[in-house]
Amino acid sequence: MATIAWIGLGHMGGPMSGNLVAAGHEVRGVDPDPACRVAAGERGVRVVDTIAEAVAGADAVFTSLPRGEHVREVLGGDGGVWATAPTSALLLDTSTVDVETSRFCHEASVERGFRFVDSPVSGGIAGAHAGTLTFMLGGDEQAVAEATSLVEPMAGHVFAVGGPTMGIAAKLANNLMLFVSLLGVAEGSQLAAHLGLDAATFFKVASVSSGDSWPLRTWYPVPGVVETSPANRNFDATFSTALAEKDLSFAVAAGDEARLPMPASRLALEQFQRLIDEGYGGKDCSLVVKFASADGRIEGFDPGA
Length: 305
Description:
This protein has helices spanning 13-22, 34-42, 51-55, 68-76, 81-84, 99-111, 124-130, 141-151, 166-194, 199-207, 214-219, 241-257, 263-277, and strands at 3-7, 26-30, 46-47, 60-63, 90-93, 115-118, 121-122, 133-138, 155-162. By secondary structure, it is of the alpha/beta class.
């Protein structure tokens, strides 16, 4: 069993690190949020106060952080991973960052004698708890093979997708498809309602027909149809609009660099930004359904609640 440092014990990192504990690994975790620290401790993670304490003698160091700037700071800042971890430790970043940050992490890690694997995940908070996440691993072939064995207790699927930055490339392209699909689900749900279709009946039709998709089956934006839908809980976030905007902006930026037009992605990004401008950045990204309704009002959402 390995000694693992885990930096970032939030909605994803907390349950993921707990699954490593359940698999028999020793996990030392760091997070500034007291509630996250308590929850991780209850999962068996040994919570410590500093990165240096977490990484001392570690075989692997995982990061699960909100944005690229946080990853850069945790790796390269004073008292960060590069300054305090043994160079024998394998570094794995499960965060969703931009391609440039991922490239920087690979190159700067190698310059300092470390091995680095970009290790983003798909499957959301439910998948993190259930240990059914999809991992997309990018890096040196030997490092990726080592990473594969480490992530298996957290995973339903593990893919070695290529060299450095190919993991994050797969994640950004996947999330682009997710969010464009979400707009179709939002508009289809509202058209079906306007035409008089029963929501539960139409969902059953679409879920076994060509309209099927992951956001339809997981986030159908009408209450009482899909148990996991945020529409059942006033669109409280399972995947916040702010995070969706972040991920999609990274994908669009990568498309800009490749000179791709990406009109559907830009429309989705514009709608997420509108939600943020209206003060709903903390609500679920499926709240974009309000832009598909005739008057902005939708079943299951009370703006004042």
